[in-house]
Amino acid sequence: MKSSVVLYTLATGKEEVVIATDDLIEAPNWSVCGSYLVLNGNGLIYRLDLNGDGQLHQIDTGDMTRCNNDHGISPDGKTLVISDNGADGGSCIYTVPIEGGTPKRITEKTPSYWHGWSPDGQTLAYTARRDGVFNIFTIGIDGGDETQLTFGPGHRDGPDYTPDGNWIWFNSDHHGKTPDLWRMRTDGTGLEQMTDDASVNWFPHPSPTGDVVLYLAYPSDVEGHPRNKNVELKLMPAEGGQARTVARFNGGQGSINVPNWAPDGKRFAYVRYEKN
What we know:
By secondary structure, the protein is mainly beta. The chain has no helices and 23 strands.
């Protein structure tokens, strides 16, 4: 599976491929300083300097060598959060220094998949399967008790904070239709449906500028969020309204699972795929 990491510029629609490899790599995070991306591949976490040698450089995550595509960078740029599949029961959330080091376990219960970091740096948002159902949870940066924000049947995934810290966006099919985008207050109140169409909508990411939300849209007949599908990246106003397609490509799982905006909100990164 060939992977190409693409930088997309909003103002011009220009796309720049910054690395293409025959290895499977996924889920670009853009650093707070704007100079590098963090990605995963083969169970490891890598740094890709945007003005460097064009190579992936491994970040030390200690014994955590089964990392999946749910990772991200703290608002102050000092800490990396990872989700690793090595724990009993599946994925568990850890933090490590941004330059690498010994992981610190955050969630005791598994499986847990990180997706969002509150703008004040104090809270992590994630999706987790508890009692057989995926719902949205939060937990303090030092661990402790988790707080469940959504309840009931269905599958809820991809929680990400707005830059003002007032809302968490996520995708869900709890209404009995194809997955749509939703937002709620950070305490779980004020639930609002933000899309209502036939597409299978996943992984909403509010822009750092606060005015738009980027998300991944599959055709209506797709179940879950698989890789190697014809997908679209769409932008919609943050307060709701008509979305527009900004990219069409072969992708899906691994393309934009986690926050992927440049810190100035002028560009974002994604991964597209093709069979070797």
